[in-house]
Write a structure and sequence with these properties.
The complex is a heterodimer of chains A (about 200) and B (about 290). In chain A, about 25% of the residues lie in helices and about 35% in strands. Chain A has about 200 residues and is an alpha/beta fold. In chain A, the strands form three sheets. In chain A, strands 2-1-3-4-12-11-10 form a seven-stranded mixed β-sheet. Chain B has a single domain, classed as TIM Barrel, CATH 3.20.20. An eight-stranded parallel β-sheet of chain B has the order 8-7-6-5-4-3-2-9. Chains A and B meet through helix 1, helix 2 and strand 7 of A and strand 1, helix 1 and helix 12 of B.
């Protein structure tokens, strides 16, 4: 089982370290041809406008949508959550349009409003330390989306089948439980998808 | 809930990795930078090459420029304060600037003390040309580093020197024994604990970008090859003939820094890059990298 981390821009090395700590083989992915050998992929935090442009430039838009159609899991953190969303609040267009949700960018404000907090997550026993950096929020979700975590009445983590997204940065701490959760999703999916 | 923690400040810089941070002087340039794929912009009154040409005292930008840039882009906005100028930094923080560069490009306000950056909620980036400077800035609270290079020259040689030196020094301290590390901390003028951390992990505890002299897509890719986490481009973009094309080319070369065919492709017909200055032609007072050690 091999999980990729989309390495166009952002915190790639931290995700690779966390995935490995959660027991998976992890690789950085710069070209769409490399998707074929993967069982799942993480779209990391970074600047969503930059990642969004490079995704289009290098043919990842259709390639990742196709990856998802095969039932292979995708995990978006922060900017990655924005990339996965169907709709971005205040913008005419979105990126991959895979997850049935409306997201708002920089929803907590500027960098000085960035924070960390203990956050309970459905499916994980004890709260995890969640680091929010100029973080987005999930404003609305469709009926097929399972809300995994709420902070101050706003949705900050959600799952829709083989798609997982969170507003914060699990890769910036030494707590690997959310990555382990995703690794389990990938394991589950490899049983049903054919390579 | 805690704001301004070291993790939140350093994490913000982690999110810039593999990206290009561009100097801009107005809203229009900021929009061009964002559209080209910049991960952040640095709002300035004058780019380094103009500061060099103008001479005199270079200060924090007029808040109007910073505000106007913050209004038009959704990516993070950085701004420069003079070394040691606590008030300029507090003013920028109060305006909601996302990152402050305590920068040698501006005329230092204090020739001895840097700002005590740990006391701020907003994160800081500082320049460093060797491991001693790097760890002193981190000790003061810098959450991100960049090479000093020689700003506004369009000459990459100093940024290369600084990155090579820092990386070489890291490799050296990795092989030192405890007793040697105590001595090395004294020689470098840095706290022992921080040096021990570098010795054990083999890397700096914060992100280190390249800055000061990046003038072409190949320059940006070279700095990534040498281990930079990302690139600041100052005078290079908006002093070039076609800023939009140039900015996009730098972004692509930084992402795919080992894809030489791609770099060749994006480097075509970019027009004349900034003229550049041979470093030995600068007199001592013109060397910005010697400010704030």
């Amino acid at each position: 089982m091999k999980i990729g981390v989309l390495a166009l821009q952002g915190a790639v090395a931290e995700h690779i370290r966390s995935l490995e700590a959660a027991g998976a083989e992890a690789v950085a992915v710069k070209r769409m041809e490399e998707l074929a050998e993967l069982d799942g992929i993480v779209i990391p935090g970074g600047e969503s406008t930059t990642i969004g442009k490079l995704i289009r430039k290098y043919g990842f838009l259709e390639a990742l949508q196709d990856f998802s159609k095969q039932g292979k899991p995708l995990f978006g953190t922060c900017a990655g959550l924005i990339i996965l969303a169907d709709k971005i609040d205040g913008q005419d267009d979105a990126h991959l349009k895979l997850m049935d949700m409306v997201v708002a960018r920089n929803a907590f404000g500027r960098q000085r409003e960035s924070f960390e907090t203990d956050l309970p997550i459905k499916g994980i026993n004890e709260p995890i330390r969640a680091v929010f950096i100029r973080a987005p929020l999930i404003k609305e979700v469709g009926s097929s989306v399972d809300v995994l975590s709420v902070y101050n009445d706003e949705i900050v983590a959600a799952r829709q089948g083989h798609l997982l997204a969170c507003s914060f940065h699990p890769e910036l701490t030494d707590d690997f439980r959310l990555h382990a959760y995703f690794v389990d999703m990938v394991k589950e999916a490899t049983k049903t998808t054919t390579k | 809930m805690e704001t301004g923690t070291s993790r939140v400040k350093r994490g913000m810089a982690e999110m810039q990795k593999g990206g290009v941070i561009m100097d801009v002087m107005n809203a229009e340039q900021a929009k061009i930078a964002e559209a080209a794929g910049a991960t952040a912009v640095m709002a300035l009154e004058r780019v380094p090459s103009d500061i060099r040409a103008a001479g005199g005292v270079a200060r924090m930008a007029d808040p109007t420029i910073v505000e106007e840039v913050m209004k038009v882009v959704s990516i993070p906005v950085m701004a420069k304060a003079r070394i040691g100028h606590i008030t300029e930094a507090r003013v920028l923080e109060s305006m909601g600037v996302d990152y402050i560069d305590e920068s040698e490009v501006l005329t230092p306000a204090d020739e001895v003390f840097h700002i005590s950056k740990n006391e701020f909620t907003v994160p800081f980036v500082c320049g460093a040309k060797d491991l001693g400077e790097a760890l002193r800035r981190i000790q003061e609270g810098a959450a991100m580093l960049r090479t000093k290079g020689e700003p506004g020259t369009g000459n990459i040689v100093e940024a290369v020197r600084h990155l090579r030196l820092i990386n070489g020094q890291i490799r050296k301290v990795q092989n030192l024994s405890k007793d040697e590390l105590y001595h090395e901390a004294k020689v470098l003028g840095v706290p022992y604990d921080l040096l021990l951390q570098v010795s054990e992990s083999g890397k700096l505890p914060v992100v280190n970008f390249a800055a000061g002299g990046v003038a072409t897509p190949s320059d940006a890719a070279l700095m990534m090859e040498l281990g930079a986490d990302g690139v600041f481009v100052g005078s290079g973009i908006f002093k070039s003939d076609s800023p939009e094309k140039f900015a996009r080319a730098i972004v692509e070369a930084t992402t795919h820094f080992r894809d030489y065919k791609l770099i060749a492709e994006v480097s075509k017909n970019l027009g004349t890059p900034m003229k550049g200055i041979e470093i030995s032609k600068l007199n001592a007072a013109e060397r910005m990298q010697d400010r704030g050690l």
